[in-house]
Amino acid sequence: MCNKEKKKKLHEYKNICKRIICLQEQLESIRSSAESAKIQKISDMPKGSMNSDLSDLMVDIEQLEERIDDEIVKALKKKVHIESCILEMENADEARLLRLRYIDLKKWEDICVDLHYEWRQTHYMHARALKHISV
Question: What pLDDT digit, counting tens, does each position of 73-122 carry?
Fold first, then answer.
């Protein structure tokens, strides 16, 4: 497997985390809509369609919560898999770099600071680490 394919595999955890954040934002938006609908229901005259609207929102909320839970489980499985691959590496510095990048999701600048390496050294070590990891 080439380095490009390995990076793609390692980035899957990050992509799942981004998807979880997006789903949580959607959930928050729907919840705020539901809250405003409840407030309108209390303050206005009762309307026949309001109950079905709220129940539809509650179903949407429940479905989103289930999807978020599924994505969290998927993220945890991916994280455990990546961590086990990193733990099998012989070079501790390379393993630490990969952990900082693909598990802790740090930016390159922060990784350079944490490892006390220059930008170029960090990227050189990253390329070496990708050659040594088996994903």
Answer: 999 999 999 999 999 999 999 999 999 999 999 999 999 999 999 999 99
Counting Cβ atoms within 10 Å, is residue 46 exposed (0-12), middle (13-18) or buried (19+)?
exposed
Cβ–Cβ under 8 Å, residues 103 and 82: yes
Residue bearing the bigger pLDDT, 14 or 50 = 14
Output the CA–CA distances (angstroms, integers) from residue 98 to 38, 105, 117, 133, in the order listed: 48, 9, 14, 9
Residue with tokens 């740090």: 106
Distance separating the N- and C-terminal Cα atoms of the chain: 9
Tell me the angle at which helices 3-43 and 92-102 cross, rounded to the nearest 10 degrees.
Answer: 30
* Residues contacting residue 63 through CB under 8 Å, at least 6 positions apart: none
Q: Are 83 and 99 in contact (CB under 8 A)?
A: yes
| pTM listed for this prediction | 0.80
Distances (CA, A) of 124 to 17, 109, 112: 27, 14, 12
Do the Cβ atoms of 95 and 87 come closer than 8 Å? yes
